[in-house]
Amino acid sequence: MEVFYKLQARVNDWWIPVLTGILLILAALSMIFFPVPSFAGLTVLFGWGIFAHGGFNLVFAIRSRHAFKGWTWYLMFGLFEMMLGAYLLFQPALAAQALVLYLGFWITYLGISRISFAFIMKDMGIRNWWWSLIGGFITLLLAFFIILNPVFGMFSAVYLVSFSFFLIGLLAIFFGMELKKLNKLLDMEF
User: Fold this and answer.
1) 134: nearest Cα among 125, 145, 122
2) Among 6, 84, 94, 188, which has the minimal tally of Cβ within 10 Å of its Cβ?
3) Range of 174's domain?
4) Section 132-159 average pLDDT
């Protein structure tokens, strides 16, 4: 079978996408049942995430300054991100607006990656690859709702994000289970 030429060995870690999918679905359900604290938490997490990323860039720049010439860029980006993250932590309204746009672009990325991944699944011989394709297009549609109307996005981002997490979770579980099936076919072949 052509599948065995595309899948070169057993994928023993098929359970990782399944576990990731379960965690995403649990996060989605939590967001649906607790929308206001979820949005507030996402806003704070957003500020801390930018601050932490800047801190890591700063540490990397200082520790790697002797290794390459461009270390000052990492230093400047690290300082900028730390200041931006701190500013967002002290300006929750601005952080909320920025978060809505950031989530819209991130969910756009997730939708595009699911669409791309559908064709990888097709090349692997996975029969129901088109589910990932449809899921990717639905995820893209949700992302555009968030980006095109930030006011709408601010009030509904939690639900749209939770639905996207739920959808991506289902697709991850589907992919893991398909890998498990391919492993069984591969075991029977050899």
Assistant:
1) 122
2) 188
3) 3-189
4) 84
